[in-house]
Design goal:
The structure is a single chain. It contains 19 helices and 28 strands. It is α+β, with helices and mostly antiparallel strands and 715 residues long. The strands form 6 sheets. Strands 1, 4, 5, 6, 7, 8, 9 and 10 form an 8-stranded mixed sheet that branches. It is rod-shaped, with a radius of gyration of 52 Å. The N and C termini lie far apart (109 Å).
């Protein structure tokens, strides 16, 4: 349907006609038909169209042409469009009655016959009516069609109408009569007297036009209306689905009329082709401003039609010597060299040919991985000037995350005034520069036969599995496999190293397992480079040899063994109970505990020493007939004996490391005060608290724990 033809109405009648046509568009979309209406110069006030009162009772020419079966190919709506409603307005005299016609109609003695005249609404079946029949012979008989004039006309009237419309069709370019591709061209023209309340569209695949008329038209706009509708018959099926046509639409970025813009998949071909014909074949019949608008608005569509049609297709018209439209530049993109994260990736846009003035290119930036700087991705506009090339950059972020190398991708997207070339995307690699730092911590010790665990941590977590070299050493004979080994840290950032031990039957001192990090590729060794875990012996010592006359009870011996295993109370504590076991007969390399010494501990209120004192007294009495001489009381060791001068000096040095923070300094000052005995009860550093710092992997706290345990054992 040609929207522009309604522009021949005026005032309220024109508004009503526009509403009628718009409402009819919905029906057309469902029924897949299109219609055309040409109104006389002075419409009278009661014309009916699709059941709507449009005003006007004058003669009305109604053209209808089917587009059933037409596939509506989706086209991206371009930006911008002309404010003109339809090209028929601006091209109303591009074909005139003075143009020669390629069709002749014999008006002498027409025959009559029954024909399907489609004289009612499109929802009703066609009725067969008696009609005057005329043969229109075109192009020397190569393209003929039948004109059917309803029996309501007299023979003379029928002959006049047949001549009028037959010759008008003959003034169109040859291709619009004969059709192209699958279209058959014009084959039937059915003419009725009067007007219809609802239009019946002729069937396109049989090339049928349906005309209602009551009086002759003023002016010559009926040729342009026929031209518009004939484009639907002859070109739509071939052009609308063509990828080159869709590319030309997108490249132009504008529409020649609002009717073309509102219905780009249905009316753009017909609207554009009439404008193309006007500017390229009969430019002298249109205004200079209209010709300029055509050439500037649809240059790529014009180039498309030029390539599609031959000189024979457009006979009897010949292409005028007009300036060829300048094709839009084709935009391609290329990327620069790889960059390290934190640098700028670079891209180059190239316009071929170079534009006469600046054009705005739409570019979409995306990333692979997490490498782009904040706000760097998304769509941006890049200006290409008359030089034809322009560089632009995309910033990347230098983060602290170890990750796989990424990339920045830039893609040219469709826009106004250019086409997108084949090299529409480019990528630039972004290289990661982060190396993980690896630390180690002792998760737990083990009893012989179990495994000592160590945790390796990489910060930041590696982007891929990271192989770390570790050396294992051991103290004690617990079957530990020592030497270098490799631990793989996954992308989670941590891994556990377990060192197996052997459970033997020998009673022996507890041992140690140490794991130390070695330097390697892809990582650096952190401050916590080595950790030690305890290995506890689980074998019972040999039972004590019986002493003539007395032996401690099994319950007491078992209790003392339990006390000797309390390593958390410090080395002095363990040493005391091992001496008790030596006195009970356990050959463990320690000096036997005497009853007098044991009494000193009992006097401190340590009740577990009471049965020990009694047992040692009995043992000593059984071993001699004479009472042993009373040993001289041994003075208690001074607390300072637990703290070596070297340790005291080290702690003083730690306490002035102000750059490590206030909490760091405060902890070491408390240790110094505890060593010197000047700490208040609430500020003393306990061995339990010190063990907490040691267990974090802070090696300097190991001798401090031992010293504090010594002091607490002698307090």
């Amino acid at each position: 349907m040609v929207w522009g033809l309604t522009g021949r109405l005026t005032g309220d009648s024109e508004d009503n006609m526009k509403r009628g046509i718009k409402n009819h568009d919905t029906t057309i979309a469902r029924a897949e038909t299109t219609t055309c209406m040409v109104a006389p110069a002075q419409p009278s006030p009661s014309v009916q169209f699709m059941g709507l009162n449009l005003g006007g009772g004058g003669g009305v020419l109604l053209l209808a042409m089917v587009v059933a079966g037409l596939t509506f190919w989706p086209v991206e709506e371009a930006q911008g469009h002309s404010s003109l409603r339809s090209t028929t307005h601006a091209s109303s005299n591009v074909i005139t009655s003075s143009d020669s016609s390629a069709c002749t109609v014999s008006a002498a003695s027409p025959s009559q016959g029954d024909r399907a005249m489609n004289e009612r609404g499109s929802h009703l079946p066609a009725r067969t009516s008696l009609a005057w029949l005329f043969d229109a012979r075109c192009d020397g008989g190569a393209n003929n069609f039948e004109i059917r004039v309803h029996k309501d006309f007299t023979e003379a009237e029928a002959a006049r109408e047949a001549q009028k419309y037959g010759k008008a069709i003959g003034r169109l370019p040859k291709m619009l009569r004969s059709g192209t591709g699958k279209a058959v061209g014009v084959r039937i023209v059915a003419i009725h007297k009067g007007h219809s309340r609802s239009l019946w569209s002729a069937m396109r695949w049989v090339g049928k036009f349906l005309i209602y008329t009551e009086s002759s038209l003023s002016g010559t706009s009926h040729e342009e209306a026929l031209f518009h509708e004939a484009v639907h018959v002859s070109l739509d099926d071939q052009v609308m689905p063509d990828a080159k046509w869709l590319a030309a639409q997108k490249a132009d970025g504008k529409y020649i009329s609002t009717y073309a813009k509102d219905y780009p998949t249905r009316e753009d071909v017909a609207e554009s082709f009439l404008a193309y014909f006007s500017a390229q074949y009969v430019p002298s019949r249109i205004s200079q401003s209209w010709k300029t608008r055509i050439l500037e608005t649809i240059p790529n569509r014009i180039a498309y039609f030029d390539a599609l049609l031959s000189a024979d297709d457009m006979k009897p018209f010949a292409k005028a010597a007009v300036q060829a439209p300048t094709p839009s530049p084709e935009i391609t993109i290329s990327g620069g060299s790889p960059v390290t994260e934190g640098g700028d990736t670079s891209f180059t846009l190239t316009a071929t040919p170079a534009p006469a003035s600046d054009i705005q290119i739409s570019v979409t930036v995306s990333e692979t991985g997490s490498v782009a700087a904040s706000g760097a991705t998304g769509t941006r506009t890049v200006t290409v000037g008359a030089g034809g090339t322009v560089d632009f950059t995309v910033a990347t972020e230098d983060d602290a995350t170890d990750e796989a190398d990424g990339s920045i991708k830039a893609a040219v997207t469709a826009g106004t005034g250019y086409t997108v070339g084949s090299a529409a995307t480019a990528s630039v690699a972004v290289l990661d520069n982060d190396t993980p730092e690896v630390d180690i911590a002792a998760s737990s010790g083990a009893t012989e036969g179990g495994g000592a665990s160590f945790t390796l941590t990489a910060m930041p977590a590696p982007a891929a599995d990271l192989a770390v070299s570790v050396t294992v050493t051991a103290t004690g004979d617990y079957g530990v496999t020592t030497g270098a080994r490799t631990v793989t840290i996954p992308t989670s950032g941590s891994a556990t190293l377990t060192v197996a031990t052997t459970d033997d039957s020998a009673d022996e001192p507890n041992g140690l397992v140490t794991a130390a990090l070695n330097a390697g590729d892809g990582y650096t060794v952190g401050a916590r480079s080595s950790r030690t875990a305890d290995i506890l012996d689980d074998d019972e010592p040999a039972p004590p040899q019986p002493t003539p006359g007395y032996a401690p009870s099994a319950e007491l011996v078992a209790a003392v063994r339990g006390y000797a295993a309390e390593t958390d109370n410090g080395e002095a504590h363990v040493d005391r109970w091992l001496r008790v076991l030596a006195a009970f007969g356990d050959d463990n390399g320690h000096a036997p505990m005497t009853a007098v010494e044991a009494q000193v501990f009992a006097d401190r209120g340590w009740s577990r020493w009471d049965p020990v004192v009694a047992a040692l007294t009995e043992l000593e009495a059984a071993q001699t007939t004479e009472p042993a001489p009373e040993p001289e009381p041994q003075p208690e060791p001074e607390p300072a004996a637990c703290v070596s001068p070297e340790l005291q000096a080290s702690v003083k040095g730690y306490s002035v490391e102000a750059w490590e923070g206030e909490a760091h300094v405060e902890r070491w000052l408390r240790v110094l005060q505890t060593f010197s005995g000047t700490a208040s009860e609430g500020s003393k550093m306990s061995s339990a608290e010190a063990r907490g710092y040691r267990d974090r992997g802070w090696d300097r706290w190991i001798p401090v724990v031992e010293a504090l345990q010594c002091l607490e054992g002698r307090s």
